[in-house]
């Protein structure tokens, strides 16, 4: 089977895509392929910038990582993360993940919670060992649960404590380097687990000979773990025949976005 033959239908209950829809609380929701492409490629549609906060708190982490940076600061901060990842050997990561997965399967017996035992734990352990962290199993997911702006107060409070715990076990270094190392770990939690879970589910419907890379590529495109991403306009933006003024919030609904010809 090739990628062209793989069919991943929308998640049941997913509304069809259509023209941008405005909500006074969240802004414009964008779902059509052409509109999504326009938003993600227009330099006037930018990621909302985090203002930062007290050192060691969640707001500080958001304000120091590349994910929520202003365009003029993003390249430098992104380069920090790229340098960290470049030092890792993907083949060695695969071997380590396969070893931990095999050990978990051997211990499991007849039943195994794929998400809890494999998807959430194995990638985190493999990555953190190579980032020089101690035991982030509890702290990493707590930060990930509140990483994006909009989390409730209880999750933010838990994440504040978790950020402090992560920093205590992180090798010392310049603040931006420490923050972006931590950010790599946080972004690997829920997103990686979601990708593994979706690939395992969709993989049941494809031949075992299908290359894993092809399966993952289509899952990322059609049933991605990141369900949406936000942008805000910094200049007038033409979208779907209209013009959005500066300061307009946009939400790209990734699961509803389908290319022409997709199921």
Automatic annotation (TrEMBL):
One of its GO terms (molecular function) is iron ion binding. Belongs to the cytochrome P450 family. This is Cytochrome P450. It comes from Micromonospora peucetia. The lineage of its organism: Bacteria, Bacillati, Actinomycetota, Actinomycetes, Micromonosporales.
């Amino acid at each position: 089977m090739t990628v062209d033959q793989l069919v991943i239908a929308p998640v049941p209950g997913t509304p069809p895509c259509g023209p941008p829809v405005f909500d006074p609380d969240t802004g414009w929701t964008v779902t059509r392929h052409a509109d999504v492409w326009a938003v993600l490629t227009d330099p006037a549609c930018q990621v909302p910038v985090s203002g930062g906060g007290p050192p060691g708190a969640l707001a500080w982490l958001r304000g120091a990582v590349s994910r929520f940076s202003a365009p003029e600061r993003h390249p430098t901060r992104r380069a920090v993360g790229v340098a960290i990842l470049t030092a890792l050997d993907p083949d060695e990561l695969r071997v380590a993940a396969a070893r931990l997965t095999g050990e978990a399967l051997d211990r499991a017996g007849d039943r195994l919670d794929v998400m809890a035992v494999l998807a959430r734990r194995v990638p985190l352990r493999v990555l953190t060992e190579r980032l020089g962290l101690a035991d982030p199993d509890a702290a990493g997911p707590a930060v990930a649960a509140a990483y994006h702006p909009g989390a409730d107060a209880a999750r933010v409070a838990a994440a504040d404590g978790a950020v402090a715990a992560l920093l205590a076990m992180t090798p010392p270094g310049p603040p931006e380097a420490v923050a972006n190392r931590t950010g790599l770990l946080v972004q690997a939690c829920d997103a990686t687990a979601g990708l593994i879970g979706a690939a395992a589910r969709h993989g049941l419907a494809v031949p075992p000979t299908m290359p894993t890379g092809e399966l993952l590529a289509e899952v990322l495109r059609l049933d991605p773990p990141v369900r949406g991403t936000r942008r805000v306009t910094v200049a007038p933006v033409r979208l779907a025949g209209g013009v959005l003024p500066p300061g307009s919030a946009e939400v790209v609904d990734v699961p509803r976005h389908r290319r022409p010809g997709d199921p």
